[in-house]
From TrEMBL, chain A:
Organism: Kibdelosporangium phytohabitans
Family from the record: Belongs to the bacterial solute-binding protein 2 family.
GO cellular component, one term: cell envelope
Tree of life domain: Bacteria
Protein name: Sugar ABC transporter
Chief location bin: other
Species lineage: Bacteria, Bacillati, Actinomycetota, Actinomycetes, Pseudonocardiales
TrEMBL record, chain B:
Keyword list, A-Z: Cell membrane, Membrane, Transmembrane, Transmembrane helix
Pfam families listed in its UniProt record: BPD_transp_2
Taxonomic superkingdom: Bacteria
GO MF assignments: transmembrane transporter activity
InterPro entries, alphabetized: ABC_transp_permease
Subcellular location per the Swiss-Prot or TrEMBL entry: Cell membrane
This protein's name: ABC transporter permease
Principal subcellular localization: membrane
Membrane topology reported for the UniProt record: Multi-pass membrane protein
A GO-annotated cellular component: plasma membrane
Residue intervals passing through the bilayer: 12-33, 71-89, 95-118, 125-143, 163-188, 218-237, 257-286
Length: 334, 323
């Protein structure tokens, strides 16, 4: 009998999975007897991107130090607003006193955030701002426009007298971070969208593979470029591979943003000239500290807390403060 | 050989008992293993979390019953959200009109898909794969890298909450999904249209010999499914009042998951929409329950994947036994 068979298999599976629950748990025991541990929720964009993994691990470590319990959830892909909403709802159900979120979309999860705040939950945005900013209690993030501007400023200085001829490797179409970095870069390098100096703009979703393909195709169009803007380090690696294949990697200034340990190594090896480091660990740690403070004293953080960005390069340019790659390797993430 | 009539009688009597038992077991297991799962608020949330995929899965069930498969359903719904949102935001159109246009366009895309499938006798898998690619691209072109927050009572209507007995949170979206499922359960089991859908899925040749307009039935199913995807777009705006071209990238596969776990056969002609409803709830219960139990998202995906394979294996096994 198929139906009975299905039921038995399904029941067995569920029992198996559920019994796994109790042994799989990290942090606190299976039955929280509300022993005064502060519950902090974290909702990241995805749980596969190394940046968010670093952010999550840092939050876990900080929570461990403070004796708080961290519950980390995530969307399934960049842009999974529905998944983030469900995660917020689940965290409220589990009694999280604070929810930290890196919103996939600056307006996509406002309703769920409002519901959580109406129930007295402290909501902190990490890494990415919401729109309006007042939708959350506080934001701990780097200024992405500033990060883009620094990359642009560096590229302009590194080119010196050479005219900029740029390809731009953006992230996911519609992503707030992607737009802010893109616009910041243009400000820094002194160009506008649509200028002839911009050979092409491609969406790479921040993936090395797509970035390589995009660069290869753009090089077919015009191989005399002088610089590449990349939204993140995987995109920079993709661009480097494509330029290397053409034998022009050393003549082109590749700039990037992120500050992952792999990215800093790429700078050290000369594949990428400079990268702008962000500090996800700092964001997460400060967020958890604020959450613990709120749990103890009821004091809420507020406003925009800028966790800063730093240019990492072994070829410093005048007029722009930077750190070398050995400093970078000590402070990188991932 | 049994006759079509007898066979379809047997099929129509096949209830969604297996999945229903699994759902009850899941609820019981999580109620015992966590202390946050079993409460009115949470159970209501689980249903709310299943609305979009549950609605997409209803249309998917119709297509799968005809032994097709629809990979474009979530993409169509996302396009409908963008269309609806942009019409209200940029042309100042009233929400209800924009919504109807969204539903009509979704039905139109269904008609094109169905027309190609029946007209050229191409496999639905390939046609809807192409449609998925086209519609996703068109959505991104149309959205030009933006997402559109909507603030309109009609568009957000399905997300509005009412309280039964003062404490059970019910959204209009929940009511609508239930009404749709009951409606389609009735149409599939008690009307000639429904019998034709099953017959076409079972054996198109036999259906044709018994006087059913196979192509017309098939085309109709794709159009009706399109309408349902348009309504799924409305559900999506009720949950997240923001039309985002990057949303629901896995909605097509999630809806197939719900259908399969609900016991509907991918070979066509066997299954029920009630099973799919249960399947969608099982997926939502698993996600919510495992989350409350502190299990990592990725392990949740493992559990869901195992369940899908098990469900198909059971289907195959039970089919083999009948032949």
């Amino acid at each position: 009998m198929g139906r009975r068979g299905l039921a038995i298999i399904a029941a067995g599976l569920l029992a198996f999975v559920a019994s796994g629950c109790t042994s799989q748990k990290t942090g606190s025991g299976g039955q929280p007897a509300d022993g005064g541990r502060i519950k902090v929720g974290l909702v990241t964009k995805t749980d596969s991107n190394p940046y968010f993994v670093a952010l999550r691990d840092s939050a876990k470590a900080e929570a461990g130090k403070a004796g708080a319990e961290l519950i980390a959830l995530a969307g399934k892909f960049d842009g999974d607003n529905e998944g983030q909403v469900a995660a917020i709802e689940n965290l409220v159900q589990q009694g999280a006193k604070t929810i930290m979120i890196t919103p996939s979309n600056s307006t996509g999860v406002l309703g769920a955030i409002k519901n959580a705040r109406d129930r007295g939950v402290l909501v902190i945005a990490l890494d990415t701002e919401t729109d309006p900013k007042q939708a959350v209690d506080a934001t701990f993030a780097s200024d992405n426009t500033e990060a883009g501007r620094m990359q642009g400023t560096y590229v302009k200085a590194a080119l010196g007298s050479k005219a900029p001829k740029v390809i731009m490797l953006d992230g996911t179409p519609g992503s707030t971070v992607s737009e802010q970095r893109h616009n910041g870069f243009l400000q820094g390098v002194g160009l506008k969208d649509g200028d002839a100096a911009i050979v092409g703009v491609e969406a790479t979703n921040g993936e090395q593979n797509k970035a390589q393909t995009a660069t290869e195709n753009l090089l077919q169009r015009d191989a005399t470029l002088t610089a590449v803007y990349t939204l993140n380090e995987p995109a920079a690696r993709g661009a480097y591979v494509a330029l290397q294949a053409k034998g022009i990697a050393t003549q082109v200034v590749i700039g990037s943003i992120d500050g992952s340990c792999q990215g800093v190594k790429d700078v050290k090896e000369g594949k990428v000239v400079a990268t702008v480091m962000q500090f996800p660990k700092k964001m997460a740690a400060q967020g958890v500290q604020a959450a613990v403070e709120f749990g103890k004293s009821g004091k809420k953080p507020s406003g925009f807390v800028n966790t800063g960005v730093t240019v990492i390069t072994d070829k410093p340019v005048s007029g722009l403060r930077s750190q070398d790659t050995s400093w970078g390797l000590q402070n990188c993430w991932g | 050989m049994t006759t079509i009539k007898e066979r379809s009688e047997f099929i129509l009597r096949t209830p969604a008992v297996g999945p229903a038992i699994a759902l009850v077991v899941a609820v019981v297991v999580f109620s015992v293993t966590t202390d946050t799962f079993l409460n009115v608020d949470n159970l209501s949330l689980v249903v709310q979390q299943s609305l979009v995929i549950g609605t997409l899965a209803l249309g998917q069930t119709l297509v799968i019953l005809t032994s097709g498969i629809d990979l474009a359903n979530a993409a169509i719904a996302v396009f409908a959200t963008l269309l609806t949102a942009k019409l209200t935001l940029e042309s100042g159109m009233p929400g209800i009109a924009a919504l109807l246009i969204g539903i009509v366009v979704a039905a139109g895309i269904g008609a094109v898909t169905g027309g190609i499938v029946t007209g050229f006798r191409l496999p639905p898998f390939i046609v809807t794969l192409g449609m998925l690619t086209i519609v996703t691209a068109v959505s991104r072109i149309y959205a030009s890298g933006q997402s559109f927050p909507v603030d309109d009572d009609t568009l957000g209507f399905l997300g509005q909450k009412q309280y039964l007995f003062g404490q059970i949170e019910v959204t209009y979206g929940m009511v609508l999904m239930l009404v749709m499922y009951i409606g389609f359960w009735y149409a599939l089991t008690r009307t000639a249209w429904g019998k034709h859908v099953y017959a076409v899925g079972n054996d198109p040749e036999a259906a044709r010999l018994s006087g059913i307009h196979v192509r017309r039935s098939l085309l109709g199913v794709y159009v009706v499914a399109g309408v349902i995807y348009g309504i799924a777009a409305w559900q999506a705006l009720g949950r997240v009042p923001n039309a985002d071209p990057n949303a629901f990238q896995l909605g097509n596969l999630d809806s197939i998951t719900a259908v399969v776990i609900g016991g509907t056969s991918l070979f066509g002609g066997r299954g029920s929409v009630i099973g799919t409803l249960v399947g969608a709830l099982i997926v939502a219960v698993l996600r919510s329950g495992l989350t409350q139990a502190g299990i990592d998202n990725l392990y949740q995906d493992v559990a869901t994947g195992v369940l899908v394979i098990a469900a198909v294996a059971v289907d195959r096994f039970s089919r083999g036994r009948q032949r």
